């Protein structure tokens, strides 16, 4: 067989790389749909509806689930976020300080409060503080205790986020401010920190979402009927009605807040990436 005959023979046809990728995606879609359909067909939707979707029980929750439980959850979250942000800023600046004891204290604080479960912090605020300081009342009652507990936990994470944001600001910004006669403190407050917050705004918003869910731990502080948040409110009604519909409604109320906040975080991250490009 000559070289010419070899060239005239038809080449074996195979799938191209793009066709292989398309085939792989198609198989994955089919498997995913098959799993979802199998799960949907195997579930006992009637029993689920009876236990989690009783319309008459859900109707009994309104408007208190919004005007009381959701309102308290939002208040707890915002107060904890404010305390955490202020304390986190202080810890971050201490972490960046040239004074050794400040850096050591900030480092120990961050490691401890990032390592401990939030539940233990709530128990510490509700039990250990009154025992250690008899007769001492935290300002704001339950709201003050929740704000302090959530703030202590959030500050450890926010401090590292703020520190990273400050260090992400070009050093030339501080040098330019100093050349204009700004003191180091004024340059930090007026020039560096505002730019740092524009950088760290998405992760701070994400921290707000996490605090919103952690507010459910308020039940370990012992709250009155008027101080209940969504989880406590749903659990109490579920026990009273012997049905889990209140828990489902409470979960949907959480999603009413966390889903829009999650969307805001993604939008801010996308804009931040566009600004970098």
Structure description:
It is a single chain. This protein has 277 residues and is mostly helical. It has one domain: MetI-like fold. Helix content is 80%, strand content 0%. It has helices at residues 3-8, 17-42, 45-52, 55-60, 64-96, 100-115, 118-132, 141-168, 171-179, 184-214, 230-241, 245-276. α9 packs antiparallel against α10 and α10 (184-214) runs antiparallel to α12 (245-276). The chain is flat. 26% of the residues are buried.
What's the gyration radius in Å?
28 Å
Largest beta sheet, briefly?
none
Secondary structure tally, helices: 12
Ranges where pLDDT stays below 50 over 5 or more residues in a row are none
Q: What oligomeric state is this?
A: single chain
CATH architecture: Orthogonal Bundle
What does the average pLDDT come to? 87
Structural class: mainly alpha
Might you state the CATH topology name? MetI-like fold
CATH class: Mainly Alpha
CATH superfamily: MetI-like
Total discrete domains: 1
- Elements, N to C (H/E): HHHHHHHHHHHH
Features:
277 residues; mainly alpha; MetI-like fold; 12 helices
Concise overview:
It is found in: Cell membrane. 80% of the residues lie in helices and 0% in strands. It has helices at 3-8, 17-42, 45-52, 55-60, 64-96, 100-115, 118-132, 141-168, 171-179, 184-214, 230-241, 245-276.
How are the elements arranged and paired?
Blueprint: H1 3-8, H2 17-42, H3 45-52, H4 55-60, H5 64-96, H6 100-115, H7 118-132, H8 141-168, H9 171-179, H10 184-214, H11 230-241, H12 245-276
Helix pairs in contact: 5-6, 5-8, 5-10, 5-11, 6-8, 7-8, 8-10, 9-10, 10-12, 11-12
């Amino acid at each position: 067989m000559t070289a010419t005959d070899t060239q005239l023979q038809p080449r074996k046809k195979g799938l191209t790389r793009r066709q292989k990728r398309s085939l792989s995606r198609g198989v994955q879609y089919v498997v995913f749909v098959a799993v979802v359909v199998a799960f949907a067909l195997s579930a006992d939707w009637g029993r689920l509806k009876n236990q989690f979707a009783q319309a008459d029980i859900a109707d009994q929750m309104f408007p208190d689930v919004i005007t009381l439980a959701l309102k308290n959850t939002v208040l707890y979250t915002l107060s904890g976020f404010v305390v955490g942000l202020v304390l986190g800023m202080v810890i971050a600046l201490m972490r960046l300080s040239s004074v050794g004891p400040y850096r050591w204290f900030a480092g120990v604080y961050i490691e401890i409060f990032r390592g401990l479960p939030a539940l233990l912090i709530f128990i510490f605020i509700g039990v250990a503080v009154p025992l250690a300081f008899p007769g001492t009342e935290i300002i704001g009652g339950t709201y003050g205790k929740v704000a302090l507990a959530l703030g202590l936990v959030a500050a450890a994470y926010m401090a590292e986020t703020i520190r990273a944001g400050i260090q992400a600001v070009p050093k030339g910004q501080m040098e330019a401010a100093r050349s204009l006669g700004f003191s180091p403190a004024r340059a930090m407050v007026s020039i560096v920190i505002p730019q740092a917050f524009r950088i760290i705004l998405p992760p701070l918003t994400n921290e707000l979402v996490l605090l919103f869910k952690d507010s459910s731990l308020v039940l370990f502080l012992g709250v009155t009927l008027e101080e209940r948040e969504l989880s406590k409110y749903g659990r109490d009604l579920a026990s009273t009605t012997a049905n889990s519909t209140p828990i489902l409604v409470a979960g949907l109320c959480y999603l009413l807040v966390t889903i829009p906040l999650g969307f805001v975080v993604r939008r801010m991250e996308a804009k931040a990436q566009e600004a970098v490009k």
